[in-house]
Amino acid sequence: MSDVAAIVLAAGRGTRFGQDPKLLAHIAGKPLVRHVVEAAVMSVAHPVIVVTGHRASEIQTSLQGLPIEAVYNAFYADGLSTSLQTGFAALPANAKAGVVLLGDMPLIKTDLIDALVKNWRDLNEPAALVPTLKGQRGNPVVLSRELEWLIEGLSGDTGAGQALRGRADVLEWPTADPAVLQDIDTSDEIRKLQKL
Q1: Over the stretch 49-83, which tens digit does the pLDDT of each residue have?
Q2: Separation between Cα atoms, residue 24 and residue 36, nearest integer Å
Q3: Which CATH fold topology does 4-195 show?
Q4: What are the pLDDT digits (tens) for 101-137?
Q5: What pTM does this model have?
């Protein structure tokens, strides 16, 4: 059992995407959300906690056969903060941290997750480790359990990003991987990705 879990946030409505559920749109023959969950399952992070909300049963069906722990966020309509809180509350007792992944980032690979966890350990387990590309902060991020109080205080449709700014115990990890900035928000973006 790892002392770092993975938390995949897959509860949102994806309103900018249109009528169809964004996380269930297919890329390379698989639902968008399944790409990132598979990367997490193959990583050193364990267990893989998937936070569901909007279209929860369909999201779970799309992940059939994967060793995950699905937790339902009844307050998903209140925004991203509630999903982060739900995921953090589901961390096992031995977990020192969670790698927080967004369900709409299908280009995230296992190697990136593993490198983040390794660097978090090598840097003496800071409160958070945030990947950056050319100075811009991205995802996924490693959030230490010691930030639980901060996460509990979040509200609305925001993650921990703003609350982490300016803290000396939050470290940045530069990477050349463009996947850390590539999330899917619109149907145009997914069409471009499908062509690739």
Answers
A1: 999 999 999 999 999 999 999 999 999 999 999 99
A2: 12
A3: Spore Coat Polysaccharide Biosynthesis Protein SpsA; Chain A (3.90.550)
A4: 999 999 999 999 999 999 999 999 999 999 999 999 9
A5: 0.93
